[in-house]
Structures
1.
Amino acid sequence: MLKLQLFSGAAAALLVSACASSSVPAPHPLDVSVAEPVFLIDTYDGDFVDIQQMTTPGGVSVWLVTEPSIPIVSVQMAWRAGTTSDPAGLEGLSNAVTYNMNEGAGDLDSLAFQTAMEDLNMSFGCSNSAEWTSCSATMLAENAAPSMEVVASAFTAPRFDQGPFDRFVREQEVALKTRETSAGYLAWRAQSQALYPDHPFAREVTAESLAALTPDLARQHQRTLMTKDRLLVTAVGDITPEALAPLIDAAVAALPETSDLSPVTPITLPAVAAADPVVVSLPQPQSLVRFLGPGLGRDNADYFPAYVLNYTFGGGGFESRLMKTLRVEKGLTYGVSSSIDPNPAFLVWSGGGQTKNESAGEFVAGIRAEMQKFIEGGVTEAELADAKAYLIGSYPLGFDSNSKIAGNIMSVRQDELGVDYFDRRNALIEAVTLEDVNRVAAEYLAPERFSFFLVGEPEGLSAE
Amino acid sequence: MKSMFIAAGLMAFAALGASAEAAPEGNPPTSFTLDNGMQVVVVPDHRAPVVTHMVWYKVGAVDEAPGKSGIAHLFEHVMFKETKNIGPEEFTSIVQRSGGQLNAFTSWDYTAYYERVHKDQLGKMMGLEAERMVNLTINDDPKGPFISERDVVKEERRQRIENNPNALLQEQALSALWKGHPYEITVIGKMEEVGALTPEDGLAFYQEYYSPENAILVVAGDVTEDEVRTLAQEHYGPIAPTGVAHGARKWEPVSPIAETQLITHADPKVRQPVWSRYYLGTSLSRNYDEALALDVGLEVLGGGMTSRLYQSLVEQQKLAINIGTYAFTTLHDEGPAVIYGTPVDGTTLEELEAAVMAEVNAIMDSGFTEEEVRRARNKLAASAIYEKDSQASMANQYGAAMVLGFELDAIAAYPDKVREVTVEEALAAVRAVFAADKNYIVTHLLPAEGDL
């Protein structure tokens, strides 16, 4: 399954400089007389995808899936550092960094930078989550070299001009106002304040923190977020490792080696939640209902039983018990679902849906009743077989486009699952037994473990 | 909510515009017709052992009878319920046990159903769709599934439209724009009319429109034309055409907007006002060249950060938080061409409107540059290459175009046709749509007084 290929660094560099735009910097001085092997490619031939792992001459670890049938290339970069890295009082700073990464670099101001991307028919942009900062570039294969040159300029000489920075602040000011009537946001805030008010995951951008941000602070923070030691790179498309490596090296050459950031302390949810649902008033015809309780991580032996169980509970679309009861039988909702999140810092089992205000009490009681049925009766053999059949049988559907493959291989890297994960995963699901599932159901789906949050004008709620 | 909810989609408009670039050598899409009149399109893509199987019916909200708004969409839900040979709620179970994903969606012009599966399951999916094309059971029990599904659709309407002040206002604006045309009916239907639909309505609708000669089969993915032909003849071939499907649909040219009007919607959930102007645009079906030119012209005018309106109103004058333009050119009949914007604090909607229209008029007077039109054309043409990455969106684009009567070669020619749009044509299309003597609908989305 594993193939090793050696490439001469000099030959690889020559190959690229022959087809790249002349202004792409060569990765290092060339000496064609010394055919020194400088990078090694491990090709993993999987059942779903073939992944070429390499460390570039510049020292960047890259996973590449070469797919020549469509003339496009996408490159994703992710750094383990997100909005929780914002210094106290400067909430929004990481967002300011990512917003401004495609707003001008080097000699190009914002308009010139955007125009350059349009001229190349490419896109490049960055974003944050709580724990990650990500940048993504998509380009036509024929324009890969000049497109990556644009990306390189953004990392090497980002401008953080006052104009786009002020536009970022104006947009954020509007976002501060509009979030106050967003049901999803209000549910999230109620959850944060009730369950982990002092944790970094509960921090929010405020008018004060926004007012304190400056282009200089963003410029400095970019070099905290985007360092070589935190960087993961994946790429998918019509490009070879030898062609890609020097483009990646040139793109990230100017990033600092390292920066100091502390990891986030994990959140531990209470084993028994408050009995009364938390209600946030919002004038609209429906109530949004969200529930969450303690979950479990990938290092837990019960993770796959829980994952399979969740399909039957609320993860399987129409095939879930929540949908069969609350939508199909009772007509109470357009959709209700659940999921498990194995983020080690915040292990949760959560879900929700929406129903007219008049039926909110019936809806919440219905969700709790479905949980209770799992505790009392467990899952049937037929349900377990159906869940496995879907989860295993549908797995290839996640590999039928370059963009899905790019997302999948990046998440395997972020979660440190190993290059062979895609090929191991179905066996892990197949091995789940009814006994495992029912033991996990009895422990994790106990209704008293779940906190409920409602946004709207719900009626008929009572303490359970 | 994730997109997992099945039988639930309501696709406002498909991206016909961004259709296929010339396909890879040796694998061009092909089409043929079964003896019973069912058209078949095959879009090969051999990257993964996966196929997208879609059945498109030539029926949508445009075909609904007066007072029966929402029946095309409600019927889409009912199609998942029960057939002669498949028990209640079993359809989805069979697909998911086969490792498949499925959904459906309804528009003004069409209704479509799809399954995405491993290629080994393609024949089984055809068997399921063929079964429900002819053997659907509609229960007339007042407590039966038709009634409970009506309640689900009412929740869907609350979730998609009534929870969202912006969606409520857009629904009113579109109804005003299409006054007197069948599109005036909102696709999801009016709450009271949906609530009054009966199983008899559903059965009549099924018998009139669900028939092989009124359907198009699209299969994209790891298959050849021969494989699809063999399976399609086996599963769909034996179905006799009913002969009652309408040859002529209720499509008609949309009349010009009779008078300019302001529609205001105030809601306590609104925290930032929004302004829009809806003009009557055109469509690729009604006027292909003008619709292409309008797409290019709107890209230059308000298609992103580099557009004229964004640079003027957001970057230079700093009167707007955002501004943009769009048009529904992929409906059969003429749809809206829209300019919208959100003012910065301290600027009223009237002030924003005056500044935007002054800029629009100045641009229409002074014209576009060759350079910016070239970029807009390339952007639209390149999007066709990026779209090829998704097997499902390729299937969507071919289905949405063929259901409106476009042929394969016309779809494949789209990027070339876009690249042929001239500066004069792009400008002329924009001038025609936003001409000073045209009526339009203005919308104001406003905060309401009072506490939350």
2.
Amino acid sequence: MNKSLHVFGRRALSCGLSSLALALALPTGAYAADYPTAKVNTTGLAVTDTEVVVGQLHSATGTMAISETGSIQAERLAIDEINAAGGILGRKIKIIQEDGASDWPNFAEKSKKLLISDKVAAVFGCWTSASRKAVLPVFEKENGLLYYPTFYEGLEQSKNVFYTGQEATQQILAGLDWLVKEKKAKTFFLIGSDYIWPRTSNKIARKHIENVLKGTVVGEEYYPLGHTQFGSLINKIKLKKPDAIYAIVVGGSNVSFYKQLKAAGVTSAKQTLLTISVTEDEMLGIGGENVEGFYAAMKYFQSLDNPNNKEFVKKFKAKYGKDAVIGDVTQAAYLGPWLWKAAVEKAGSFDVDKVVAASPNIELKTAPEGYVKIHPNHHLWSKLRVGQALANGQFKVLYESDLIEPNPFPKGYQ
Amino acid sequence: MSSETKTNASPLGKLLAFAQANRELTSFLVLSALLLVLFPLTMGIFRLNLVGKYLTYAFVALGLVICWGYGGILSLGQGVFFGLGGYCMAMFLKLEASDPQSTSIQSTPGIPDFMDWNQLTALPGFWKPFQSLWATFIAVPLIPALLALLVSVAMFKRRVGGVYFAIITQAVAAILSILIIGQQGYTGGVNGITDLKTLKGWDIRSDSAKYILYFANAFLLLAGVWVSSRMLKSKVGRLLLAMRDREDRVRFSGYDVANLKTFAFVFAAVLSAIGGAMFTLQVGFMSPSFVGIVPSIEMVICAAVGGRDSVFGAVYGTLLVNFGKTFFSEIFPELWLFMIGALFIGVVMVFPNGLAGLNRQKVMGAWEGLRTLVSKVRGRNKGTPLLPDGSAVAGGATLKNDL
Amino acid sequence: MDSLSMSELWAIFVMQSFNGLSSFSVLLLMALGLAIIFGQMGVINMAHGEFLTIGAYTTFVLSEVSQRWMPWMQGSYFILAVVVSFFIAASVGLLVEHLMIRHLYRRPLDTLLATWGLSLIMQQVFRSVFGAKEVSATLPDWLMGSVQPTESIDIPINGLLVMGLTLLMTAGVFVGLFKTRWGVWVRATTQNRVMAGAAGINTRRIDKYTFALGCGLAGVAGAAFTTIGSTGPTSGSLYIVDTFLVVVFGGAESLVGTIASAFSIAQAQSTSEFFLTGSTAKVLTLLAVILILMLRPHGLFSIRVRR
């Protein structure tokens, strides 16, 4: 597996940082006439001489609105910026927003509407795997284009989807390596909410711990989504005394889990805990003081110290208020419109097939996370960072990996 | 009645009189015309497919009319039966989609992808029957019926009813959805069973298949409506109604109330299951989100909006609620919950008998008025048509009447 | 387990027992309001969870206010929040009763549908006012720590707080119902509304204040739950099914039943969670509840009446 932890030049990164201002400031609206609609749109998409229509499909209501709101905001910000800079191929982007309402069949219905009735050129949307699985057949049949922002379990690769979050191995392996190297962890307790992402992720984590790191998994537990009582679990942790807890609890349960951990005296002073499911967004609900000192492994933290990110954070706060926070998925959602723009411009066309064909190896040097590149398997090359939670709801970045090759079907981990 | 018929000897008058005399047949014909002619003619395949999806919920609402509106048994777990029916169908389709060639990248080809991800190396035993289409067709109504039978025998024999029953059905829904989500190696977990493609080699995702499935669904629903309305007109229906209003009297008259309730509940479960199977075929996947409590309550609302004791109302109520949901969420994404919440409250407080009650109170009065008007005008004009197209008046009137 | 000494096992045992008691108080606190509304009035309030959320958001708002303008209150605002939550939730309850519930007293199943609609509307109101994301009240440090009677035993203070509040509320309700004039009126109205009215009790007023009290208790529970759970537009809905099960399992008309049922469900759940995994424990507990309900259809403590 170490082979896939591909070392990517740091040169590219520094290039990216310096060219940020240029890329955002250059007006690109000049050449609308160079791209006649008949040429850039041969498949009947909603593209006119002045406008291109895209869809945005997230849950604005229901239980998932908590998580998906950040993605909605980030995608809007990116699209506004693109429009302000002249749009794509001289065309302004118009958004049709649909509410998935946290209901998977509803996502399927709305995706059909966007693709069949509205003929949108691309869709930025979905958050949970379940919603993505529900719309996937629709996108494949109607040949639509979906930019999906969430870190997820992998085991999927579709011609019609670009995954701008990390797949499981990108998010898990380097984090565990760090835990063993820096924290000398030998025994692990795996905890998750009971559904596919935590289970698949823990499966990969367990294989890596047992086969590669030669550690031991002393417990593996799953609780139903929405579970609020973690007392017994905490006692089990106290009984097993693991060196590290590896936690993938999501949603409302997350808040209960960390508040009860803290109250039961399981704090960072006594216990190492690494999570891949707590971003700055979740910290809002949990309260930074309750997670303080625990570690999180993901590709982006709001506190990342690079010019791209500072610019991004500034713009995001200007648009959504100074108290707005940006989590990993929010940043990944922000990448979607930019990656699409780059691919459309490279292809010189909005046609899905051409955009897909042009996408591999597209680089985004202006990404807030630093630098990303689209892999032919439609996932992104990205780094993994380990951050330590602070009481103010932010993370202090402690570690940064090299660029990691995405590998949605990891051999030896299935 | 007969004197009125005489004064209206014109074709329009005859039609109106016939509609009046055979109200149920008329309602049925209007509904058939709506589902089989009007919708397919006026809608594109996307909207029609959507209507097809709504109509699968109408099966559940229809079941609720029987067990709740007539039997007085409110079940908040009808989604369980809808889900089970849907899962049975989905299991068959998933097995067909998981042939060894198309799953060759898996470590165990030939089993559904989610099993492979969960390290299953062979098809679990309870999946095996679903390799056969006929077994699936039998399982779709049978498995939900057996569960309904189990629940009802346990509950009704012990005279659990009303609120208690409603809450226990909620718990059943909660258990089943936790089980399905937790046992993802066997069930597909929270993602459900997705990516269904063909039925015996026939591509269910093509436009022509969607048309055919729409009509199959509409025919099944109409058959369900017909059978239900016949059943409710029979002795069983009258007993159910009597039981709803005065359970003890029915019991004292020597009838086994528990058996009656069981019958109504199982009947409703089977209807829901058929709806679920048709849902899977038309939408192309099945998800545990149907088995939970929220959709179950929404389906109760569909029945309530239509009029809880009207089999036709069930269909109209479902269509109205779901059209409303789609419409509001497309136009006012932020407001649709207010709208749908207000609908719940409004139906209960202002129109407790739903559309059907509204029809009985208001429209029938207006309709009577129209009839008198028509006969008066006709009497004066000696058969000269009032409007260039007299039949349109009649059609419009009966449609309204039906609503 | 081999490396554990007897004293450590003892510590785990103590903490696990406390955990069971703590779950019990959580269940009881959330069920108490519902037991009054449902048990005493026959109203099925599906929006009960949203009244909980009102309490949670009240606590959040007060936490923000005290942080910004009254820093001297940061250590103690929580106590105020509990009280204010009660009154805000109760006032909303009064309003809801007046606009909606009073028209539906004879139709319990209809209250279920109408209050479900109400819960959807309330959730959207929370979302519009406070945003879709979860919020977190900054809790005083003394509340989020633990008591350590020995080296290896940690007793969470928020657990103690919930327990204390539960005890207080339950005692209050008992005294209110069984030792005061109001309690006599409520019980009379429950048992026979017509006769109670004939005896000169203003049953309208009784209904109104009973409903408001139930909602107020939910508000208190919501405030208390900010110490152990999340505060978001849909947080309340996490509790609703469990709450109803507790009330029904106990026997709707009996407060003692509600207590007994909260106790047994909490113990079953927390013990089985300790020995099995969380999901399995949940399913087993729910199954056991249903099986027992089949044997005792009207709950553990039901008043024997012919139906």
